[in-house]
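Journal club prep — side note

Before the paper discussion, L.F. wants everyone to see what a predicted structure for a comparable chain looks like in token form. Sequence:
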Amino acid sequence: MAIKIFAFFDSSKTPLPVESKNKSISIISVGDIFIHQSVLDAVYNKNEKCYDFNSCFDKVDSILQSADIATNWFGGVLDSSGPFYGYPSFKTPEALAFAMKNVGFDIAFRTNHTMDYSEKGLRTTTHLLKKYNIEQVGAYITEAESKNIYVYEKDNLKISFLSYTYGMNDIPVPKLWMVNFIDTVKIKDDIQRAKSISDFIIVALHFGIEYQRYPNSEQKKIIRTIADAGANLIIGSHPHVIQPVEIVNNKIYAAYSLGNFFCGQRMQYCDAGVMLKYTITKDKDSIYLKQISYIPTWNAKYQQADNYKFKILPILKTAEITKQQYQFLSDENIERMKQVYQETFEHLNKPEINFTCE
């Protein structure tokens, strides 16, 4: 696994000249992580009186760690002291930040639940994400930080990450610069600044209508505006279900929603997500998206002794989903896992645009 080197850049810095040797950065992006009460109850150790999320990620950690950089959308706030809550205002223990870093996450895009506990919640979240070296993109505790563009650099290949959300659930934002809202004028300006300091621009959008499996006209309009402005890849979340991937302007991949990666929602389609895998390459002549694919995931809820547990399971092949391999799952769990794979495959697979399941 490559060493991760992170830095903030401003437009006064000039990119280094392109060398002849090819360079690549591999990225994995997943959808929403937001912790409901059912998950809090499942990960609480009564004997130790602490929360432990690590086992929830132990089937996906090696995949996440195989990439140079891994991203998610984190919903809610983090705090080192309780009490902790699920929906509708998410307050999550520090242990989640520890687990996210432990399994390989590097960037947390922010969502409509960023201000669930107002400015104090934003400050505790920012502090804890910094503590575990997870970059928060799309929310800020200082105006100076809000003006920065986050750039990941490896071998003189630079990728900008921009993130925006549609709203804050009618919760007031004390200072508008604290959260990046979807404002196409601002996004266009940010993309132009990103062009001057990086080779490739990824725009993350938290938008769309909850539980709708297809993007609406407003999403499509925003995507096309951002693609026209110069974004090189667009990824989305918020509907809590997977939405399709398409190519915009004959060259820009747009993934409208990566679904739920980890949460307590159990409705059909809401228990599923994808790990979007892609590689950006830079050679002497061009910078381009070398490959893009996906791995379906299922957020399993299963019984262990007298308690329920959660675990994120990658689904690589339906033939491998057997009771022997997943002894902790019930027969009903096994059938749902197979169903999730089929639902995801039928909804996303598009060989005609070279977008297929890994």
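L.F.'s comment for the group: Residues 1-20 have pLDDT under 50 and may be disordered. Keep this in mind when we get to the figures.
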